[in-house]
Amino acid sequence: MDDLNIKFQEKIKGDYKEYIAELMTKDKEELINLSEEISAVRQIYQALKSDVPMENHQLEYLLRFKHPLMVLHDQCLIMDNDLSYALETLINDICDRRDIEQDYQMEDDLMEPKQEGVRMC
Questions:
Q1: Cβ contacts of 5 within 8 Å, gap of 6 or more
Q2: Helix (H) or strand (E) holding 108
Q3: pTM for the model
Q4: Count of CB atoms within 10 A of residue 72's CB?
Q5: Which of 5, 47, 61, 68 would bridge 51 by S-S if both were Cys, CB 3.0 to 4.6 A apart?
Q6: Residues 85/57, Cβ–Cβ less than 8 Å
Q7: How far is CA 113 from the centre of its chain?
Q8: How far apart are CA 65 and CA 48, in angstroms?
Q9: Cβ within 8 Å of residue 26, ≥6 positions away
Q10: pLDDT of 48-68, one tens digit each?
């Protein structure tokens, strides 16, 4: 792990600890009302710890923010608000790749016929 990534990991860990400390000051009803936000922040934090590869220029930019974890959370909310765009992208990906048919039940009468190898005339 290079220096930028270490700095970034330390910074988002601090952000997350600060966020949790702030939550500890809230009452039960407030926490229930914030449950979706809490879950989203936690998921983003967990993903940033291991699942999201970033290039140095991206790390450098994000490190310029005091609270990059919360910046990313807020920007995710903006993207989530555009559900139609997210669905359009997802639908395009699913239909272009066509690699999930084995994972879900298909309508028998709408299945594409399987091709059995190449036949020569």
A1: 54, 59
A2: none
A3: 0.64
A4: 20
A5: 47
A6: no
A7: 35
A8: 15
A9: 34
A10: 888 778 888 888 999 999 999
